[in-house]
Structure formats: structure tokens, C-alpha cells
Amino acid sequence: MPTDRADPEPLTPYQYPNPPEALPEIVIPNAIPTDERLWVPQAENVWFRPLCLNASQGYWMNLLRVRKSGVLSRHRHPQAVHGFVLKGRWKYLEHDWWAEEGGYVFEPPGETHTLYVPEDVQEMITYFQVNGVMYYTDPYGKGMGYEDVFTKIDMCRKHFEEVGLSADYVKQFIR
């Protein structure tokens, strides 16, 4: 609520508590980790690094790391996806554009596409925010499986347990 008090000092932090129901922030100083145990295997030569697994709203944010060329997956999104390429490049076979280092991609709801990494890319890392589900299909739309925030949490739990970080390690990313 506004007051007529003048700001005593621009660097004075907010003086009241946050709402008690507010969830804690997530701060990850080294989002691209040097500890390989933090990369969760998704497929051969494909990993993800969880950043936020939002179970209450059904989305996740992660880094996708690929160290192979060729088709990674074909999938459909019922909700929007945002991506920012940190390293390497990739494309969707259905489009003529390339997602290159420093580039941003908005994927509209309803689109089905086939992610391809070219042979000259040794490593691709892209930050993705995926809302809802990734529905994997064959070239003709037949369902082949899916991922959502809950399957991602399960993958993390299993992996972190296997590498000695404990299944509970994933809890820091869940909101």
C-alpha cells in the first residue's frame, strides 16, 4: 500500500515479510554444472539439467544437452514452449530456420516437430520452458509416449538416487 513516506535510502530492502504462503525462490549459481551427476540421462547422449519442476502448474524449465547428431525426437506440444540456445545449434525438420547460439525460439501450442542436431555440432545446450506435456509421435501422429513434469520428477529422483545424491535431491527444484 502506498504511503507518503519518502524512500529513506534507495538501497534499503523491503521492510515487511513476504506472504507466508509464498514459496521460496530457486537460485542456481552454476546452471551449467561441472558435476556430471546433475545431468539426468534422458536417452543415449541426451541429458537434462532440472532448474524448476513446477508440479503445481504443470511446467518445467531445464537445460537440454545433446552430444549426438541426428533426430532427437518428434513431439507435439498442447501448450507453448520457450527455448534459448546456449551452445550449438539445432532445427526442426518441419521448418527452414535454425536455432543457433544466442537465439530464442517460441513454439506455439499445437505444433508437432522433429528436433534435429546436425553432424558438425559436438554439443548442444538449450534452455527450455515446457508447459504441459511433450507428446511423442511417429511421422504420422501415432502416439509413442509422453513426458510431463511428473515423469521428469521421477527421472530425476531415480537418477539422483543412483549417483549418490539421494532421491530427495530433486526436491529443491520442485515448486
Automatic annotation (TrEMBL):
CDD domains: cupin_DAD. Residues 32-121 form the ChrR-like cupin domain. It holds the Pfam family Cupin_7. InterPro entries: ChrR-like_cupin_dom, RmlC-like_jellyroll, RmlC_Cupin_sf. It comes from the Bacteria. This is Cupin.
